[in-house]
Amino acid sequence: MDPLSAPGSADVAAWRSRWRAAGESLFPTLMNDPPSYAGAVETIGALATELGRRDADLPALVAVMAAPDAFLAECGLRPGAVPAGLLVGVACGMRERDLIAEEVRREHHAAIEGARATGSAWAVLAGPEAIEDVTGGPGGVACCTHLHVASGVEIRATVDAWSPEPYRVDVIEAGVVPPRGASFTRREPWIAEFHRYRAEIGDGA
């Protein structure tokens, strides 16, 4: 298959499902073959490092997934007993997680800077600004995370529709393990607890 020079969103979605499945299928098959397992881990690490060095974005990951043997050759590596597509797939999954983490860091930084610019005591790192707008969502789980800018304390409110106590609030503070928190069976006390924590930590507005 020729590399996809300019993949669209459908291409990325299709290839993403492949590289996410690669790790699920690769490692269980190698558990009883320690030498092959060690070799695969070393090769995958080298491939992931090279993708990071290239600052590979999602279209770039699609391109190497479309021509895994060529990518291994460019890196001076051989697949050995493991198919090149699986090795490259796992490496692409690792790189995608790095890209997601980088995007989250950028979004958090923008939210914090936005809060500082407006004089707000709180930055919304994830989810809606109002806890009242958090629902279980189509996947059954949803959350919002608010950061108290001055102290760095986070309040995270989650809804897990599959849990017997679906509503939870956690206060995440540096050096405090496990975080403070509580679970609820009903929305009303959950919302009240969230607002209580905000008032306790800082400006509850």
From TrEMBL:
It comes from Pseudonocardia oceani. The lineage of its organism: Bacteria, Bacillati, Actinomycetota, Actinomycetes, Pseudonocardiales. This is Alkylmercury lyase-like protein. It comes from the Bacteria.
